[in-house]
Amino acid sequence: MSDNSTTTGADAIDVAIAQGIDFDGTPIDPKKLDLYSSVMALEGNRQRSGVTNTMRSRIVRIGAKHIAKDVLNQKLLDAGFAPLKDKDIAYFYNK
């Protein structure tokens, strides 16, 4: 599973977890898979607060890995989202 086509993209992790095999080809410990599954089941039952809130959270969480703080902040504003919050900056940019 180590070629680039299977280790990139939004669902690559989910596919690997479903197969129980890490990107390097090693099996994922069943205890880890069980814990992951139980936590994801809890998350699956959680009431959601709104789609746009979740969209913004994902944009910030993922965007901070790839986009400079000022650029991401402007993109959020341009799209009509709230700007980066102090807690976003502290967590994602001040590491």
Question: Your description of this structure?
Answer:
The structure is a single chain. The chain has six helices and no strands. It has helices spanning 4-7, 12-19, 30-44, 51-66, 69-78, 86-92. The mean pLDDT is 92.
Give the gist of this structure.
The protein is built from six helices and no strands. It is an all-alpha fold and 95 residues long. The protein has two domains: 4-44, no CATH class; 51-92.
Based on the model shown, name its key terms:
95 residues; 2 domains
How are the secondary structure elements laid out?
Elements: H1 4-7, H2 12-19, H3 30-44, H4 51-66, H5 69-78, H6 86-92
The biggest sheet, with number of strands, parallel, antiparallel or mixed sense and barrel status, is:
none
Number of helices, where a helix is a run of at least 4 consecutive DSSP H or I residues: 6
β-strand percent reads under 5%
Binned, the helix content reads: 55-70%
Which whole number gives the mean pLDDT? 92
Q: What is the global morphology?
A: extended
Count of discrete structural domains: 2
What is the number of beta strands? 0
Unreliable spans are none
Give, in order, the helices and strands.
Answer: HHHHHH
How far apart are the termini?
31 Å
What is the CA-based Rg, rounded?
17 Å
Structural class by SSE content: mainly alpha
